[in-house]
Amino acid sequence: GESVGLHLPTLSVQEGDNSIINCAYSNSASDYFIWYKQESGKGPQFIIDIRSNMDKRQGQRVTVLLNKTVKHLSLQIAATQPGDSAVYFCAENPFNQAGTALIFGKGTTLSVSS
Amino acid sequence: DAMVIQNPRYQVTQFGKPVTLSCSQTLNHNVMYWYQQKSSQAPKLLFHYYDKDFNNEADTPDNFQSRRPNTSFCFLDIRSPGLGDAAMYLCATSTRQGNQPQHFGDGTRLSIL
Q1: Which residue among B31, B90, B105 sits closest to A99, beta carbon to beta carbon?
Q2: Which residue of chain A has the CA closest to B51?
Q3: Are B35 and A100 in contact (CB under 8 A)?
Q4: For B70-81, what is each residue's pLDDT tens digit?
């Protein structure tokens, strides 16, 4: 079946480094993607989203890159901080409609050491 | 702040004893979702309400039901919880528009004795 997946289950970085979390998707028709951050014991928190008519979108310390040719999505976190430690999920809205299940990747656990 | 609130944060019930989880939202969103998330896994959609219309996912067990008495509130009822139903249950909301994120509450962690 079609799904959104992540390349690495865990990523460990030093405080101040830049982090890159990757995600591959298989539904070439999808045109809306979201990155969520989930801290222990909390719900997924929206970080940033991107539509397929864009290649790049920037937020505060975060950048999402979309490569439709190879169906790849990445989240870049600049100057990673201990508070960035969490599980990061990419998610895809395959039908670009409200009321549909988001297809989540398996998640990458980011650990930031001081 | 506008938000999605889930109560209780932790719920313990006995095997087979009905339990209800609640969700409220101040975002005035039309769509409300219930997801199940087991340890180290991604959330899995159980069902959603698009306004008053209930939409069940094909693989959601009959043991799980939902009610939405008004725009702000949505309930998840588990009629006869089994040990396999122990999980985090997440409520989310969204607008009617497609290119908008779903906003999640902090979940209710359900334990079954």
Answers
A1: B31
A2: A99
A3: no
A4: 999 999 999 999
